[in-house]
Amino acid sequence: MSIEERKDQLIIPFRIRLGVTGQRNLKDVENLSKTINQILKEDIFELYDKNSKKIINSSRYTPITFSILTTLAEGAERSVVKEVLKFPYSIIEVVLPLLKEEYLQDFQSQESKEEFEKFLALSRSPIILRKKSIREEFSEIEFEEARRQAYEDAGMYIVNHCDLLIVLWDIDISKNDETTIGIVNYARKRKRPIIIISTKSPYEILVEKGYGLNAQSLNKIEMFNMFHISKSKELTYINNIYSRLFKNPEGDKLPEDTKVLIKNKLLLFYIKASLISRNNQRLYRFIGSSVYCFSTMAIASVTLGTLIQSLSFYGFLLELIFLATILFLVTFANKRETHKNWIESRFLAERIRSSIFFVICGIEPSSVEVPPYMRTAHHPDDWMIKIFYEILNSLPRMKGYHKVNWKQCSEFACKHWILNQLNFHRQRAFIFRKISKFLEWAGIIIFYSAMFTVLSHLLLFYIDKIFPDSKLEIFLIFLLLYYPQLVLL
After folding, report:
1. Which of 17, 235, 372, 465 is the most exposed place for a label (fewest CB within 10 A)?
2. What structural domains and CATH numbers belong to the chain?
3. What is the pTM of this model?
């Protein structure tokens, strides 16, 4: 089933975050645009390693697309923005170095200002780096340097949050452009991949690979997109969760449009993440329990083979079969990454579930922001962070809570989120305490049984004449060897 055949499903794209900088005055915009388009279609993929290219080429369900981080400066930046937005699923992320009113003063013509407003409107959540006007903060003497620094700060922000930096410049003209030079040098220092396009004919392209690009997360995004839920089950799950959330006195007071938004934009993603997590959890626990059982059976078989000579061949053969089965199960679990998928899918599901209550309260959920050059527990190549980012971008911008609805929203969140979680974990803790107590007593019983077996075996040394070639002795030796494994199990 291709992407086109799955239009009824909500598809998560694999997004390459592009940054852009360069000179403002461009002459041959048409030919430059063709060069930019060629880079986006072909050259950019040469920055991926061999394994990543293989993953990209084998992706059937996940579209590859772009987001463009830009200050919307005239010239180079807007040229790249126009080409990027021609690709399906592409989005724009605007980073403003100054307050909007102050930044608009950079654009001389009304046409340029209108174009800026048009692109700005496409950005779901523009990032404004300064909260105050630089004219209010700095004197006339400091003003120009403060303005230049603000633009450089915006460029550094873009470098820190992009996968690849595209630079359009004529080195002869731009060698005096301190801001662009500073941004490029900063990208080199951070080992960001850089594609430099000369703005002079024949528009030569220089590629600096840096750390390169990585598509490992595409495998997991593909897995998420491939995960199929039948329409009937999908509707059942959505209706059940919707009823559990909103069919109550507190839910009845919430705005209807907010509930519809959650139902259409969040619940299916939550269901998919939860089901993937549950399936991997069950598989992981099943394999773990099976490994313990087979290891116990392996010890039992080798014990019998050792004690009863006539059964030696069969005992050791059974041990080999059990050990081979354990090896297969462990290898299968590691290859499927069942534990990792369980935890990561649960992480994604809980992020989405939390977002439901943020949306109800009109509060903007926040994504996990980690610079690409950092390799911590969750970095931007982690698939669940990319998926959560896409889900957030599918939502309209939250406008903040309204005083009229605040009481209803807070009551709903307290009861159906916070108190619900507290009750859930209390119940789980109670159940696990009971299970733990049962296992503790079972372990104690087996432990004392093992001690009794040892004592019985010692007694046989004194009554050996009564039990020559005793089957009882063999049985007790078997128990002696086997009981510790039962205690461990």
Report:
1. 465
2. 4-216 (3.40.50.450), 227-363+398-482 (no CATH)
3. 0.80
